[in-house]
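FAQ: What does a ligand-bound record look like?

Like this one, built around zinc ion:
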Amino acid sequence: MPGTSPGSTGAGRYAPSPTGELHLGNLRTAVLAWLFARSTDRRYLLRIEDLDATRVRLGQAEQQQADLAALGLDFDGEPVVQSRRGAAYTEALATLANQTYPCFCTRREIAEAASAPNGTIGRYPGTCRELTPAEQAVRARQRSPALRLRADGAHQTIRDVRYGKVTGQVDDIVVQRNDGVAAYNLAVVVDDAASGIDQVVRGDDLLPAAINQAYLATVLGASPPLYGHVSLAVNGAGVRLAKRDGAVTLADLALRGVSAIDVLGLIADSLGLPAVDHVAELLPQFDPQRLPDHPWVIT
Ligand SMILES: [Zn+2]
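The answer part, i.e. the structure of the complex:
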């Protein structure tokens, strides 16, 4: 049986948010991350990304772990729970103190500035980058700021198993939200480094975020991981799969007589691999270079 690999030092991970049940696309990414990790003799770690307290649903972390276990995916050690990691994030933010600036923008202001003629959608337009201390004091009376990393337009290159070397311009990402909680990008980078994660497998919608996260890792003195961005599952309209797309969770599918092993077979088929009785039987045939490039269409 696959399990802990005493000789290996690196690790891969799966890091869901406990905001709802995992659907087929989430489960497929978890299987892929497991295959990438185990086929390279890495540990496989679970992280619970529960910093967005308003979206966390009670009991979902446990349900997600039960679903992953039902597919035969095993994890090394106890899960890392982000809501218990505040001290580590505070420490990281302290080391970044000279490289951050307060940002008072609302989401709407950023969207409006980014859609202006010279703006770039999805990038921070730089509104608060050069505020003077006096201007900051005025703004702070109306709204508590988030903290952004001053990237100075740096470029960062990442290595991806499927995309090769990818270079992009680093955005001034938020590292601390305006409610004082560590931002998603900071938590991910701090946790990956602390856990010795050197392989990150996830949906290819996160490829642009990898540029920013790898840069932040470097700033924090960590080595960016090797990435493996994999295609997503989509519905019949080509839109990223969501729970509202029908029977797409293990619980929904069980009601229709589709077992967890059947689901593993569907996932294997979507990867060009044969149906098996246990996920470990996929390991000898798993080749990251032969994964399909197109999304998995669920209808
Ligand atoms: Zn701003």
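Follow-up question: can I read anything off the structure? Yes, for example: Confidence is low (pLDDT under 50) at residues 1-6.
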